[in-house]
Amino acid sequence: MTPTITAFKASPDRGRGLARDMRVRWALEEVGQPYHVRLVTFAEMKAPAHRKLQPFGQIPTYEEDGLALFETGAILLRIAERHAGLLPADPRARARAIAWMFAALNTVEPPILERAYAVLFESDKPWHVERLPVLDSRVDARLADLSHHLGGADWLDGAFSAGDLMMASVLRRLGSSNLLERHANLQAYVARAEARPAYARAFADQLAVFNASQTA
Amino acid sequence: MTPTITAFKASPDRGRGLARDMRVRWALEEVGQPYHVRLVTFAEMKAPAHRKLQPFGQIPTYEEDGLALFETGAILLRIAERHAGLLPADPRARARAIAWMFAALNTVEPPILERAYAVLFESDKPWHVERLPVLDSRVDARLADLSHHLGGADWLDGAFSAGDLMMASVLRRLGSSNLLERHANLQAYVARAEARPAYARAFADQLAVFNASQTA
What we know:
Two copies of one chain form a homodimer.
Chain A: E1 4-8, H1 21-31, E2 36-40, H2 42-45, H3 48-51, E3 61-64, E4 67-70, H4 72-82, H5 91-121, H6 128-150, H7 162-172, H8 184-194, H9 197-215
Parallel strand pairs in A: 1-2
Antiparallel strand pairs in A: 1-3, 3-4
């Protein structure tokens, strides 16, 4: 049965692929699973019908064969468990790949989002100039550890996995900051992820949705 | 084989059970799995030997039978997959319980930790009094959604699961703030979690470690 995901009708990132449906699209492309997309406006996302699928009023959601899921981590895990290509077969390597999914979401992403939040909502505040270096250093501490772990390897633990998909997606949120530039191996890591054909297909699909919203 | 976890030799929370080893201890108590604890000082936690197990220099880690894991989410999932008691047998209910684990770690915990960070490190800053209500409102938005979802139920999705263990652990970090008091059903939810015998055993064990560190 073809799964259905939800995505922004007009993503606030203007098609840069930073909204979280991109992570699910990319995973589905990696495993070769076609999917439907139901587009929602911001108002629809916050309405009761959508909140029955997503209690926090966010996208994406995932519906398949009587199962409704939310949280990109849980959706990726579900996809990875039912298709080959996103988790190693060896149980120990599989557990480690899942650890990297959680590391991306609970250790690396929070300081990155906090910095993005400050830039978006507090850059006109008198304290922003003093706080930004602190926010930068909190991000950089995580990046330095990640860079040290990655070293000269292509991926975080052996072959490309759902852990890499999630980590690269999180690092992409550093976008226009120069924080990634301090770590050449992490820059190359993100570029390597973005060069995957599955990534390119997913990116093009989410961009087409945004472009359509601008001409409608 | 008995697993070994790491924990703070002297937890900065002074035995309140907010350090993340508590989540792993609680999970192991829920499934009746004995475990060893290796205590680490802050300096040891940041040293290369520990970083081989935990690239970000944090606790807890989990070692078992040739597998070394980090990230509490991944550790809990590993424990839940190998023992009965933390995830439903039905595959769809299991996927939903895992979604709640991710929701706790990636949707509810980040604004709670951000507020705790500001109280800990920025309360002497001139801007703190203006920022705190914003931080509170970001936490409260998540709590309101969570409270709405929980309604009059005991647990987030059917029987108690690893999702509830993680969510209750995250909510406990609101500690001395009054934010939980606005949502009576969430207060009762945390109290219900804390009343579980497995929680009480885990809490007593981590408290004994802290107390020993003070008299040593």
